[in-house]
Amino acid sequence: MKVSRKQVEENRSKVLEAAAMLFRERGLEGIGIADLMKAAGLTHGGFYRQFKSKGDFVVEAVRRAYETSSDEIRERIGAPTGDPFATLVRYYVSEEHRDHPGAGCSLATLAVDASRSEDPALRSFFGTIVSRYLDLLVTIMPGEGVADRRSAAVAALSEMVGAVILSRVVPDPSLSREILDSVADDLLAAAGDEPD
Asked: Transcription regulation as a keyword (predicted)?
């Protein structure tokens, strides 16, 4: 039975959406094609007709993950009330973000995998993700001058990503919460905001 072009695109989108979530939950090597296609509600034979190579597929799935999480971040910080930087810190360095890696930022879930990858396209895309987040942070960071805001943005992004990674890896819930609280408080204090 021939599948329509529209159905092919819908199936492709389902696969990318499932991969974006599962890669962030389990890592780039943490799921096989058969399990991925099952999660998308499709047969694994369809995978090979939809993607040029596994490398291209991984980059597309990471791109989908980035787009989804960055859209959520932009929506949160774009609220008409409140300080965008404080809003970002409170969301990113939180138990909510820590506890839902499948819906969270690709940097906090997949950057270590990407750093080990020999695929130049994947590494290049992660460089793009870092650059885009830095560009966003520069626009919402308090401070005088672009150079000062850029420096603060590099430090803030590094602290936020590191805090989420460390809070996920420690088995002690108290230490995990302490990591999140300490980093959020430090970032907010450095920005002149009162920590919660």
From this structure: yes
Q: How far is CA 35 from the centre of its chain?
A: 22
pLDDT at 23 over 80: yes
Residues in contact with 73: Cβ distance below 8 Å, sequence separation at least 6, in sequence order = 88, 91, 92, 105, 136
CATH number of the domain bearing residue 62: 1.10.357.10
What is the tally of structural domains in the chain? 1
From the list 87, 92, 90, the residue with the least C-alpha distance to 69 is: 92
pLDDT digits (tens, 9 = 90+) for 30-86: 887 777 777 777 766 666 667 777 888 899 999 999 999 999 999 999 988 789 999
Residue 97 lies in a domain: yes
**Taking the complete model, does pTM exceed 0.85, yes or no?**
yes
Do residues 137 and 156 touch, judged by C-beta distance below 8 A? yes
The token pair at 1 is: 């039975």
Domain contains 49: no
Q: How many CB atoms lie within 10 A of CB 82?
A: 11
Q: Is residue 152 part of a domain?
A: yes
Q: How far apart are CA 3 and CA 182, in angstroms?
A: 53
Q: What is the per-residue pLDDT for 93?
A: 98
What's the domain range around 119? 54-190
